[in-house]
Design brief:
235 residues, alpha/beta, Purple Acid Phosphatase, chain A, domain 2, 9 helices, 9 strands, globular
């Protein structure tokens, strides 16, 4: 069965907590679910590269580019950025491991910034329309992102993918973005919410799946439920 025929499982920001990631996806066998990771699998936690490899190798899975993947690739290319990357949670052993794995580097640079699902759900890392600076369609934006990663354009991507989540409080802006992208709702992560389930806004037109999964994240709150970050996409 193709991924497009399966129900969708959304996985929010993992940030290196592979133990909780394993726990989160255990009830959702890969052959029964189309899994979409929202980016930021790395940094803060100790197993960022391990989380990337797990997501890459999980069948029926798509992985979006997050701002922390961009920062890590930037540090890999430019050693003067290592200190900054470590200041936002980067683990030096992860960078050393990534440096030795050229196939993983190539795979990271090929990640999309946006995915449009069959039901017209737009999946992205941050809840912001800044992606529109790079193109007018999902395909053109993704092509521009991959081109920037191939040609040393991490600075622009870092700024874009670090944009604040605005859809929660700006419904008109969300509506304009959805209309522009021919989508009915936007799903994103990037900024931890404090609900027990993915946080829904504006009658379901915006859904945040970053529930603070990683116990190593600076904004982690003790007892943050796994179901706030990983769960089925509603119809």
């Amino acid at each position: 069965m193709a991924a497009d025929d399966l129900p969708v499982l959304i996985a929010g920001d993992v940030h290196g907590d592979i133990e909780r990631l394993f726990q989160a996806v255990k009830p959702y066998p890969s052959e029964q679910w189309h899994t979409v990771f929202l980016g930021d699998l790395v940094d803060y936690g100790m197993f960022g590269v391990g989380a990337l490899r797990f997501a890459r190798d999980r069948p029926n899975t798509d992985v979006l580019l997050g701002n922390h993947e961009v920062a890590m690739l930037w540090a890999l290319r430019d050693s003067s950025r290592v200190g900054f990357w470590m200041s936002i949670g980067g683990q030096r052993h992860d960078l050393d491991e990534l440096r030795l794995d050229e196939s993983l580097q190539r795979w990271m640079r090929e990640r999309p910034a946006l995915i449009q699902l069959a039901d017209r759900t737009l999946v992205q890392h941050c809840g912001n329309d800044a992606y529109g600076e790079l193109g007018s369609t999902v395909d053109s934006i993704n092509d521009r992102v991959n081109d920037l990663l191939a040609k040393g354009g991490e600075a622009l991507l870092w700024e874009l993918l670090s944009s604040a989540n605005v859809f929660e409080t700006q419904p008109d802006r969300l509506d304009r973005w959805l209309e522009r992208m021919h989508s009915r709702r936007a799903v994103f992560g990037h900024k931890p919410h404090r609900a027990s389930r993915p946080m829904t806004y504006h009658d379901g037109k915006a859904i945040n799946y970053d529930g603070g999964l990683s116990r190593s994240h600076r904004l982690y709150q003790k007892g943050a439920p796994i179901a706030a970050s990983v769960g089925p996409l509603p119809p």
